Amino acid sequence: MWMLRPQGPWSRPLADLVGPLIDPVLARQGFGQSDLILFWDDIVGERLAAASQPIKLQWPPRDRARTAEGAQPPATLVIRVETGFALELQHLSGAVIERVNAHLGWRCVNRLLLKQGPVERRSAAKPARAEPDPAIVIVAERVVGPIADEPLRLALTRLGARVLSRSPRGGHG
Predict the structure, then answer these.
(1) pLDDT at 151
(2) CA dist., res. 106 & res. 74, Å (int)
(3) Residues forming beta bridges with residue 80, ordered by sequence position
(4) Phi, psi of 99 (to 5 degrees)
(5) What's the pTM value of the predicted model, to 2 decimals?
(6) What is the spatial distance between Cα 121 and Cα 49, in angstroms, rounded to a whole number?
């Protein structure tokens, strides 16, 4: 028995369609894209994400829109946090800022503003990520090469396998 496999521009993962639809709504809250909202668990970890959620990015007023070097000054990330968890998140603010900036790829945030209150609970079931084809993982391992830091090597291999599995030459195109 054979299965029809949809082909064409309309056969895309739902995640590829959701981001562009909610980006304009999130832009009104200061978010340039949906990454902070959608990947909050991955950015700060499940434990912190369970007690917090990003609300908005507050950018400096436009009259002070550029630093002396001409760069955009960093924003303040406003986070809603469970009342009993605010002090712990305040102590971890440096690490959270570092992780957010690393995820975004530039120094976007320089400060957290914590707003205490109830956090909306997400459903416990996370969508399962499809495992890449083992052949693609082998290619990614070859590209990454020998790296002494084991966790770094594994992370780069996972990233490479995901990138290769999405590319037209990665075997699924």
Answers:
(1) 80
(2) 9
(3) 53, 115
(4) -70, -40
(5) 0.54
(6) 10
